[in-house]
């Protein structure tokens, strides 16, 4: 900078004990002589002080550069203490600049300037720039590398890992040999615990899938995965040179050599010819199946393309194809295939014929239900479990970075990702055991020490089976029963326990075909045929490791569990393969007697049976030709109708749908008459306004206790109750017409989605509560440990519900007027985060729902709930808020921060339709955000569990003497004089809720 200022530093050593008293030469010589003698005698006894002295020039002497201000602060070098801390953080595993900056800010505040005011962030000395931090981090990383070549580093690590006793590693670098040939890279890795889980769970079904863009090289990363008793787990990792059949087969051969006892009967993959070919060549006795989710996705994408000529009839084509895929028998498959070939769209469109014949009909054994279920003992129809592992690796462990070296990526997989996966497996097995927590006394003995998913499934079917009676079950052979259908009493299902230890049990109902777990027909036999319980199921099925907890993990505490759980002494061992002793002739009430459910009323059962008879009579009526008999039957039905009217509930001369309600208790104070609220879309026009006028403020039934498989009978009964003025035949005809208009698309968790709901999803319309609740049900199914996911209608209606326990991870979708958002506690911290796809705002409706859901998260005596509302990606248009709510909820369930991904809005509707059709949720189409997005907006709120406003704010509050609720005086419109009068006269204060009045905020 050509600044003329120079600094001169003087280095001095001062001896305080040897002072010169006078400024004379003789005095100086005398002290100097004494000092030399002291140093010669004992230098350590001489006290010395080292000093540096300089003279700073005046600020005005500097030229050509600033000396004060922001520019001067930015030109300072990084402080050595800051540099050392950055090096320490990098060595501790930090990989991104943002992560280092976060730790560095804490260090400056809590350590470097503890108790002091930190310097301004413009000082580069203490707050280095991103480039400064990156250079320091790069220097640390370069110093830890063994070589500048990536493959050489991986070779060193592989050799180090191979020395471990519990680890198998094979690494072959890609290089050119002396004879000119080139070897392809291959890396295979498997630990001892992975080998054990592969042999334990991988003999029936293994899943294989590849993921890309995990490092800077174009190399696929393959996960060999199995479904364990509690989750999906990776049991093998390999990186081949390409995704060709020869490279994949070579890696599979390595794992086959490492595990000579591994002989799986089934594999599941995407429709990848290379993977299928490699598996069939290496495992010739195994059957390779296709994932239902990817099959459905491929079909939808093909029929939607206009160039294929079927986009205008895509619903018809998809229904025909889905019927083929869902065929449960060979006869049904042939019938559905004939319907496709006889259809007009098949005959008129050669592209459809060629595509489906050449690609799909050649491999029906891989995707048709009837052929897939042959010898299949586990219900695995999608490989979404492997995809969840891929997503977890990319966004929770690799932090979304795609430019890592191969060594860095493999190191993260080996040291972090696999260790976390095994820890999760251990934690879930221990948490579900009786050694961890005592089971409820009403739980049947055979369900103790079972995985949570199995217990919840069977308990739900046991509850449904309570409606069955002894006459509904008929034994037709050893271990074979005919059980009446609960919806169609003329239909029966065959339940087979498996005659020998090698036969699989079975039931002819859809529930068994889908889950391969005891259905309500099995459970009805468990309840009513005491000699035929869980222990009578075939041993090849009963001893499936998927139905038991891992005894290897629990063996250390088995003796303690045995002594504490004395009531389980009669239950079969979790690892025993021998048949248990025969049960006692006296039924055990602890096993089947007192389930914590209420038995349905007999009247409900009779209603269903009568409705079924009426339906059958209606069908026969249209085949009658005898006019005399029809006239006689009409008179009989008219008499029967009058008799039914006499037995139905009435209110005066009008029929009612339910018994007369009790009279409402009136209070002394009466609410003033008010005008009905203005409809928010009353003066708007357009397609969206028309939809909202019909969908906004509609009355929705909250009855969630409807029985399964009785939609038709329920419709008939409802019609008979409502239209007694007409004949029974006319009622049932109306019911059939209504059913055609509301044709069922699919049914998830007792929620029926119609074709109209499907059109809303396909035609860019606003999603309704059925879409949301079905999506939440799929998330709950995939992630049973996540709390929340409650019915959005019930939550919005404000019905009394228990709050979510504070330590639990929770995800919940909220309906706030004409908008959908999602709230969560996933991600740590004590507060609640709301993701909104429009703006980071909060209205009174959302405040009320959050206070209801997260009341147990309140802090301090003021009951404060910290809430942060984020708008991480703003939606285009006004109708896709529901899609973003479901997409954010799915990402949170995968433990992926929505602020780190960018969803592809144009593909979200198709993806949600595929998820609903296959009843399996997965991450929505997205891309990774490489850097922090400055467009993310967020707002913080302080909510509280008190007052009608649910906002924490200073001010005088008053307590209701009836409900003990606290309210801001301003919110309940009490002035200071009113409060003083209540206190002075010791009068009772009753809040608006208890007095029956309402107050608007």
From TrEMBL:
Residues 493-530 form the SWIM-type domain. Residues 555-578 have a biased composition (Low complexity). Residues 944-997 form the PHD-type domain. GO terms for molecular function: DNA-binding transcription factor activity; zinc ion binding. Keywords: Metal-binding, Zinc, Zinc-finger. Residues 555-606, 655-681 are annotated as: Disordered. This is Uncharacterized protein LOC118418932. It comes from Branchiostoma floridae.
């Amino acid at each position: 900078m050509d600044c003329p200022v120079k600094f001169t530093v003087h280095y001095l050593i001062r001896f305080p004990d040897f002072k010169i008293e006078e400024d004379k030469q003789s005095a100086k010589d005398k002290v100097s002589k004494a000092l030399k003698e002291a140093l010669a005698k004992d230098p350590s006894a001489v006290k010395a002080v080292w000093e540096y002295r300089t003279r700073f020039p005046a600020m005005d002497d500097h030229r050509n550069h600033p000396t004060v201000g922001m520019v001067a602060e930015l030109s300072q070098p990084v402080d050595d203490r800051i540099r050392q801390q950055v090096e320490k953080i990098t060595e501790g595993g930090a990989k991104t600049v943002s992560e280092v900056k976060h730790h560095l800010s804490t260090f400056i505040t809590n350590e470097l300037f503890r108790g002091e005011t930190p310097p301004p962030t413009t000082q580069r000395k203490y707050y280095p720039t991103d480039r400064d931090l990156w250079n320091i981090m790069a220097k640390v990383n370069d110093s830890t590398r063994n070589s500048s070549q990536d493959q050489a580093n991986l070779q060193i690590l592989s050799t180090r890992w191979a020395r471990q006793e519990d680890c198998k590693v094979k690494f072959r670098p890609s290089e050119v040999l002396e004879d000119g040939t080139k070897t392809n890279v291959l890396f295979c890795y498997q630990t001892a615990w992975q080998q054990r889980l592969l042999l334990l769970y991988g003999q029936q079904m293994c899943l294989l899938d590849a993921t890309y863009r995990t490092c800077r090289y174009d190399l696929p990363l393959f996960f060999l995965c199995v479904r364990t008793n509690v989750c999906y787990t990776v049991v093998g990792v390999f990186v081949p040179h390409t995704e060709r059949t020869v490279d994949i087969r070579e890696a599979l051969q390595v794992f086959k050599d490492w595990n000579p006892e591994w002989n799986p009967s089934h594999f599941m993959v995407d429709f990848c010819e290379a993977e299928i070919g490699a598996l069939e060549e290496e495992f010739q006795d195994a059957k390779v199946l296709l994932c239902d989710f990817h099959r459905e996705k491929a079909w939808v994408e093909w029929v939607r393309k206009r160039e294929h000529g079927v986009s205008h009839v895509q619903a018809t084509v998809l229904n025909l194809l889905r019927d083929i895929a869902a065929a449960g028998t060979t006869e049904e498959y042939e019938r559905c295939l004939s319907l496709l070939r006889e259809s007009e769209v098949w005959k008129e469109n050669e592209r459809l014929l060629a595509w489906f014949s050449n690609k799909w009909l050649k491999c029906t054994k891989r995707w048709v239900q009837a052929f897939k279920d042959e010898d299949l003992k586990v219900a695995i129809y999608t490989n979404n479990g492997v995809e969840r592992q891929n997503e977890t690796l990319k966004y929770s462990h690799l932090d979304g970075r795609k430019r890592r070296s191969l060594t860095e990526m493999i190191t993260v997989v080996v040291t972090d990702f696999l260790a976390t996966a095994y820890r999760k497996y251990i934690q879930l097995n221990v948490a579900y055991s009786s050694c961890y927590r005592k089971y409820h006394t009403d739980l049947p003995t055979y369900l103790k020490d079972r995985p949570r998913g199995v217990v919840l499934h069977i308990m739900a079917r046991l509850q449904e089976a309570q409606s069955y009676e002894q006459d509904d079950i008929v034994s037709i052979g050893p271990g074979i029963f005919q059980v009446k259908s609960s919806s169609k009493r003329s239909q029966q299902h065959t339940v087979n326990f498996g005659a020998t230890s090698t036969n699989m049990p079975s039931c002819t109902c859809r529930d068994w075909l889908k889950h391969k777990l005891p259905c309500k027909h099995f459970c009805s036999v468990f309840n009513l045929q005491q000699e035929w319980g869980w222990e009578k199921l075939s041993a090849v099925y009963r001893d499936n490791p998927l139905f038991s907890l891992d005894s290897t993990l629990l063996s250390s505490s088995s003796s303690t569990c045995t002594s504490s759980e004395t009531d389980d002494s009669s239950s079969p061992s979790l690892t025993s393969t021998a048949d248990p002793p025969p049960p006692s002739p006296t039924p055990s009430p602890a096993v089947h007697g007192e389930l914590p459910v209420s038995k349905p009323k007999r009247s409900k059962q009779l209603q269903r049976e009568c409705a079924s008879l009426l339906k059958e009579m209606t069908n026969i009526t249209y085949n009658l030709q005898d006019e005399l008999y029809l006239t006689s039957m009409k008179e009989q039905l008219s008499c029967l109708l009058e008799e039914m009217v006499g037995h139905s509930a009435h209110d005066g001369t009008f029929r009612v749908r339910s018994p007369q309600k009790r009279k409402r208790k009136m209070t002394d104070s009466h609410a003033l008459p008010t005008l009905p609220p203005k409809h928010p879309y009353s003066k708007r026009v357009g397609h969206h306004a028309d939809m909202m006028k019909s969908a906004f403020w509609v009355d929705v039934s909250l009855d969630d206790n409807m029985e399964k498989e009785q939609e038709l009978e329920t419709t008939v009964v409802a019609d008979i109750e409502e239209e007694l003025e007409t004949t029974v035949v006319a009622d049932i005809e109306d019911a059939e017409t209504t059913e055609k208009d509301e044709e069922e698309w699919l049914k998830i968790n007792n929620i029926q989605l119609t074709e109209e709901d499907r059109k809303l999803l396909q035609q860019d319309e606003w999603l309704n509560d059925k879409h949301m609740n079905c999506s939440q049900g799929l998330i709950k199914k995939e992630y049973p440990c996540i709390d929340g996911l409650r019915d959005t209608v019930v939550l919005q209606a404000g019905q009394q519900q228990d709050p979510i326990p504070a330590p639990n991870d929770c995800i919940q979708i909220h309906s706030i007027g004409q908008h959908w958002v999602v709230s969560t506690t996933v991600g740590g911290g004590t507060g609640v985060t709301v993701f909104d796809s429009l703006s980071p705002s909060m209205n009174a409706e959302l405040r009320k729902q959050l206070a209801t859901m997260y009341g147990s998260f309140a802090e301090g005596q003021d009951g404060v709930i910290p809430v942060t509302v984020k708008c991480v990606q703003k939606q285009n248009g006004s109708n896709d808020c529901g899609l973003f709510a479901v997409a954010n909820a799915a990402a949170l369930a995968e433990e992926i921060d929505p602020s780190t991904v960018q969803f592809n809005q144009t593909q979200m509707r198709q993806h949600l339709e595929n998820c609903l059709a296959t009843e399996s949720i997965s991450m929505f189409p997205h891309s990774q955000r490489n850097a922090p997005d400055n467009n993310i907006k967020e707002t913080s709120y302080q909510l509280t569990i008190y007052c009608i406003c649910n906002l924490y704010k200073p001010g005088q509050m008053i307590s209701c003497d009836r409900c003990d609720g606290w309210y801001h005086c301003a919110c309940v419109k009490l002035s200071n004089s009113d409060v003083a009068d209540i206190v002075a006269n010791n009068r009772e204060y009753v809040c608006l809720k208890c007095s029956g009045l309402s107050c608007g905020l």
